[in-house]
Amino acid sequence: MLRPEQNSFLTLTAPGTPMGALFRRYWFPALLAGELPEPDCPPVRVQLLSERLIAFRDTAGRLGLIDEFCAHRRVSLWFGRNEEGGLRCAYHGWKYDTAGQCIDLPSEPESNGFRRQTKLIAYPLIERGGVLWTYMGPPEHQPEPPEFEFAMVPPEQTYTSKRLQYCNWLQAMEGGIDSSHVSWLHRDALRSDPLMKGSRGNDYNMNDTAPRFETADHPGGLFIGARRDAGEGQYYWRITPWCMPSFTMIPPRGDHPVHGHFWIPIDDENCWAWSFDYHPLRALTAAELAAMRDGKGIHTRNIPGTFIPEANRANDYLMDRGGQKAGRTYSGVAGIAMQDASLQESMGPIVDRSRERLVSTDNGIIMARQRLLRAARALAEDGTPPPGTDPASQRVRSAALVLPGDAAFVSAAREALTVRPGVAHASV
Ligand code: FES
Ligand SMILES: [Fe+2]
What are the pLDDT digits (tens) for 390-421? Predict the structure, then answer.
């Protein structure tokens, strides 16, 4: 439970908010690389942390993420012409480069210096792992580029999608670290989804629906361990890393690719759900890629030309009451991603956390909130740099493994929770 003022503190990320300042100290995904496929391609509107921006790739292939609105009279540069090394406003022809600098101001003589002084807000945009990442914080604090494993493996080993979710980023992220819902909401997927089914772990998952949760700190976030009975005095552990502020990784199943999410605020009431799948050792198979593109696993089938899922709030997520009754899906909503999104959106744009009743399976959520509160407060009060902005803190893995009954999960699984190039992830 959170007091209303704590809830606002944790959820709001516009410029000038403490949580917004925290987010702005990390690299995070802004666009899929495929959204800016080639030099001089159409610019793309993108809203992040309540800031309206425009992304473009110039003639030389350089990437830019700048204020959406022209410095002259604030029309949207989405209507601009992306040509000859910059984006030219369609209204009176002012032109900007990828750093936001005005490079042509046809109506003023160059001698008055006005053009040189005209510069839009601009943030770095870099490509890594099929994703365009941005850093929206103070330039002097810009960390090294991110090194999450999914973005570092060869391209044939990784696949990323994104979808629009109509709620605040925090309640979406809290779903990502709440693995106790899997045995309920997603139980059909464990049996039938091509990217999930057939692992021994699924049986442990289904046979014990009252997991015990333990959490442990790592420098950049938490490891959240869910313990289920595996018989013969052993436990099946599913361990989810959470990296500040909003990266989560789902424990693997068998030899399936490993998946996870980023939850990135668009504004206070909407977020991007980024979903990746990768295998640390091998290329994704054609069948796996086809399933991902078809919205299986944690991905969605989106309305063509948009990132809005086909099943969405406007059509009640294509609720199938017959399927719910017959047990084809537990909730009546098809697919893991929309099973999650439908319930998270049903909580309202920003859930009132003063009215919740948390229990022991919510330990991961409680601990993550505390870490975020502490870090945002320390940054706001005396500029303490937040943890986990460095690539070393990002080299974590999720794990699913059977451990002896008396083992402490973090020490017993330490190696498995660290990226080891050339070594498979720990999975049963
Ligand atoms: S509004 Fe852009 S050039 Fe005038
Ligand atoms: Fe889920």
Answer: 999 999 999 999 999 998 898 988 999 999 99
Q: Give distance in angstroms: CA of 118 to centre of ligand 1.
A: 12
Rounded to the nearest whole angstrom, what is the distance from the C-alpha of residue 112 to the centroid of ligand 1? 18
Residues 6+ apart with CB under 8 A from 351: 167, 168, 171
Atom of ligand 1 nearest to the CA of 75: 1
Cα of 78 vs centre of ligand 1, distance in Å, is 12
Q: Which single residue is written with the structure tokens 């100290």? A: 25
Ligand nearest to the CA of 74: 1
Q: Ligand 1 mean position to 53 CA, how many Å?
A: 16
Check pLDDT > 90 for residue 191.
no
Q: Nearest ligand to the C-alpha of residue 193? A: 2
Please tell me the distance from the alpha carbon of residue 201 to that of residue 208, in angstroms, as a whole number: 11
Beta bridge partners of 95: 88, 104
Q: What is the mean pLDDT of residues 137-163?
A: 98
DSSP structural state of residue 418: B
Q: Which ligand is nearest to the CA of 338?
A: 2
127 CA → ligand 2 middle, Å: 28
| Pocket lined around ligand 1, Cβ cut-off 6 Å | 70, 72-73, 75, 89, 91-94
**Residue 71: Cβ within 10 Å count:** 18
Q: Residues lining ligand 2 (ion), CB within 5 A?
A: 340
Contacts (Cβ under 8 Å, ≥6 apart) of 216: 222, 223, 225, 409, 410
238 half-sphere exposure, CB direction, 13 A CA radius: 30
Mean pLDDT of 324-337: 94
How far apart (Å, rounded) are the C-alpha atoms in residues 87 and 73? 16
Q: Whose CA is nearest to atom 1 of ligand 1?
A: 73
Longest pairwise C-alpha distance within the chain: 83
Mean pLDDT to the nearest integer, 317-335: 95
Cα angle, residue 82 at apex, residues 27 and 63 outer, rounded to 5°: 20
**What pLDDT digit, counting tens, does each position of 192-203 carry?**
899 999 988 888
Position 72 pLDDT exceeds 90? yes
Give the C-alpha separation, 311 to 333, whole Å. Answer: 8
pTM: 0.97
d(CA 195, CA 206): 17
Burial of 38 from C-beta contacts in 10 A (0-12 / 13-18 / 19+): exposed
